[in-house]
Fold this protein.
Amino acid sequence: MNKDPIQLDPWGTAQIDDYEKLFELFGIQPLKVVMNDIPHPHRHIRRGVMFGHRDLELVIKAVSGNTPFAVMSGIKPTGEFHLGSKMTAEELIFFQSLSEKAAAFYCMADLEAYADNGIPLEESARIAVSNLADLLALGLEPKKTYVYKQSEETRVMNLSFIFSRSVTQNMLRAIYGERNFGLYLSALVQAGDILMPQTKDFGGPKPVVVPVGADQDPHIRLCRDLARRHQTEYGFLLPSATYHKLTRSLSGSLKMSKRDPMSLLTLNDDPAIAEKKISNALTGGRETVELQRKIGGEPEKCVVYELGMFHFIEDDAYVQRIYDECVSGKRICGDCKAEHASIVSDYLKNHQRRKKSFIDQAHSLLSNQ
Amino acid sequence: MNKDPIQLDPWGTAQIDDYEKLFELFGIQPLKVVMNDIPHPHRHIRRGVMFGHRDLELVIKAVSGNTPFAVMSGIKPTGEFHLGSKMTAEELIFFQSLSEKAAAFYCMADLEAYADNGIPLEESARIAVSNLADLLALGLEPKKTYVYKQSEETRVMNLSFIFSRSVTQNMLRAIYGERNFGLYLSALVQAGDILMPQTKDFGGPKPVVVPVGADQDPHIRLCRDLARRHQTEYGFLLPSATYHKLTRSLSGSLKMSKRDPMSLLTLNDDPAIAEKKISNALTGGRETVELQRKIGGEPEKCVVYELGMFHFIEDDAYVQRIYDECVSGKRICGDCKAEHASIVSDYLKNHQRRKKSFIDQAHSLLSNQ
């Protein structure tokens, strides 16, 4: 792999220091320019967590013109929804909420869960029910949603087979570096996922937006390239995408990884344990309380601040107050952690209660496909 | 590609001069050693047209022990059955006929027909019905057969996805040379086709024989390698294979190609046109009749002789007589062509009449899957 730190690796644990560079390097557009055209922008948008896009204008136009569009995402059903999955899920649900004509597509990548993590399909089927119940509890509207299992959706597999004839090893190497055949194939299958909503069975060509973490951009670029190559055949519009910053683990390093459960919050965590995890999290605090009172903390470095700002506090003024109190030295880490722990704990209790009521529906949605 | 003439190219137009070399180079076993254990051997076996195998002992044992085994083949439904397709089909049917416990699997590779030849799925679906009617007319027993379309068989696609994680670019390059991603994927999908009969849905591990032309051996080697890599997971037996010599075009060059219809016999040819094609075919005749009377012809070089020997004459003594008469100078090409043209014409008339009566059944077999 290229050692340039800005090389995006969709399969790695990326740390991106300077998101602005992506504008220049990969042609991602700043979201700021179009965000005023988005009705009731989501907190990710208002706060710059979602910072970039490609061709989102197509979707904005579909919203204002009341014409059909789709929003696409998915998950590898290997375990409980963590905060990274929650971010993408909320963005999916946000775009779906923008219009009666918005269809959400959601892929349960059970084959990948088997191939990568050795999870048998019967087990990932149970996990998928739990994941879908999370989505419903977060606000997914089932009547405007098509959920499918990767192992059962021939349309996606057929698209990826067809696409395989128009990629070259050079294209794949240029985008991903030298990788194993299996990862290349996964990328083609994802292109199939993203372009399926534009096929005849789903009403033909339309704008489709894929909300992703910044590290997933290589998949978007490959998919747009394939859409272009198969445009005369299928009439594909190039898919749109939005990009959000990566959520760090509670220890502050890398992106969320399922490998280290104590540094990772999931929506199914026991609220008491979640509080404990937060009490151990990395902050932007100074070496001593005295110093912090004097020169203030560094919320930009603080995972606890990020928890509220990215994930759990809806009220912009409240987030601003936390920030101001921190940098002015008025707010001390111990209190701040306790405050966030309580917010997160309440959120989880509420979410888990709601989620329970959606399990049956999730089950029937996944068996009816 | 390697320029060594013995490099096997499953996607090319191969000419293999010395089949014996394949024993040494690739570990294909001579069929002679086991042929006496095969009950009522097919004319391809008796005449050395089928000349090699891998692990056919497993199948022979299943026949004598009356235990389940499978035989697998398929076609890319792009046009009418030509003599190459007929060879493989007859071998499939022969192995199926060996036991009540023999199941035949047949793949209609409609996605390949689309990706390679631009034939839409609706059109290849019609062609597949015609191809299947040919198979039934040739003797395929529908009750012991599973026919499927590549675009609809998730089990095969899922296997190939799983296999994709255990191949490396180096493995693929070593077997096929540097190829496009799409051809590599096709090879994995074929491995899925060959190994599906051993999955749980079809009763689990069992011997499976794949009768192929000698140029297809790379696919067999890849598939056996994948079976080995996934043995603990699925309990796969390494698939068996048999190898036949390639049918030349009527002009004597290369293997049968659908690109030159006048040099290619199909089972749907108008018998009168087939006779005409044969009258133009390459023979092993001498420059003049006088010379031929004196030193005899060369049946080894003669496509007309091959037509009878490979494809259309069941009676060994009759084939022997033709051979003897040719080499002794007793038989002259003009008469011999007329004799073969009449045999082929009768065969086609009879086949086409039988085929008609199987169209409805073929249609319903392909829509019921």
